[in-house]
Amino acid sequence: MLSRVANTLYWMVRYVERADNLARLIDVNEQMLLDYESHDSERLRGFWKPIILSTGDEERFHELYDEVGSDQVISFLTEDTRNQNSIFSCISYARENGRMVRDQLSDELWEELNSLYLFTKSEEAAHLLETNPPRFYEMVRRASMTFLGIATSTTARDERWDFMDIARHIERADKTTRFLDVSTYFPPGADGIESFSPGVLHWSAILSSCGAMGAFRATRQEINAKNVASFLLFSPDFPRSVRYCIDRIDNCLHRISCSNRGTFSNESERESGRLLASLTYGTFDEAIEQGLHEFLDDIQGKLNTIAKHLFETYILMPELAGDVPIAELPAVKPSPEEVAKDLETAEPVQKQKQQ
């Protein structure tokens, strides 16, 4: 399998997963605001600012917008193509990556991805965003889940699938930690004044953002910080928990290298194994002792490290990997002639900020 094909498939799936997670985050929090209609603009800024901080795009946001409000944040995360991590941008990048490896995708998978892209460019999407945002986000989520279902049922379980599965679960684990991290940015209440400090409503919104409400209710636990965070971090069974995602990543990495689990043949396997062990034997109390924000930030850093070593091991040319730091490699894009000649060797789109 060509390394550039693997890289392109990887980013195609990461972008679709990112669009899905952003749609969940925005929709749930926009609905939650209905319970805070009495709040003034200053208090509403206190609600939306943590969401921007949790995405890691606060610097870019402040370059483009002077105020932090509902309209600005929703536009920035949804349709502003100046933000390379907005829903519209992610879907566009996913479709471009898919186009470059069109012959590696099933017809059904390409049609679904292309349909999602065309939907974001349509008047229907613009109309829904203006008149019925929940319906728009629902359509993005459903299209993303349909894309996943088609990929699952039409992709052979070879290296293509493994790189796609790694991408999905790295992105999913990262977003789960970021959803949990929103609570660490809320200021505590003071003098009995109501604030957006985390409570049952907030933790319910996090469960809904992760599609975990039904699975969590089945555990018959009370909705509070400890139970929700423990479930989303350490559950071995729920598909969006961080531990579950890392387990899938570790399994796929060993499938690619044909090495036994519990050992490692490269740095990405070593990092995934260490992170999986820490989550397998970790507890919420240990996370609180370290500091929840610091604990989540550490997981995000390790996910970035796994992705970095994955790129170095399988995508970057071995003779370059030992001599040239990644940051110094030129960002070469293929010419139209090269793309037409051989789509498999065309450079994939990698306008990625959150790795």
Features:
about 65% helix; 18 helices; about 350 residues; 2 domains; about 0% strand; mainly alpha
Please render the helix and strand layout as text.
Elements lengths: L2 H30 L8 H15 L2 H7 L5 H9 L8 H14 L6 H14 L2 H9 L1 H22 L4 H23 L18 H10 L3 H5 L7 H10 L7 H16 L9 H14 L3 H7 L1 H23 L3 H4 L14 H6 L14
Helix pairs in contact: 1-4, 1-5, 1-8, 1-9, 1-10, 5-6, 6-8, 7-8, 9-13, 9-16, 13-14, 14-16, 15-16
Molecular structure report:
It is a single chain. It contains 18 helices and no strands. The chain is an all-alpha fold. The protein has 2 domains: 1-155 and 326-355, no CATH class; 157-185 and 197-315, no CATH class. Helix 1 (3-32) packs antiparallel against helix 4 and helix 1 (3-32) runs parallel beside helix 9. The longest helix has 30 residues, at 3-32. The radius of gyration is 20 Å and the shape is globular. It starts with a helix and ends in a 14-residue tail after the last helix.
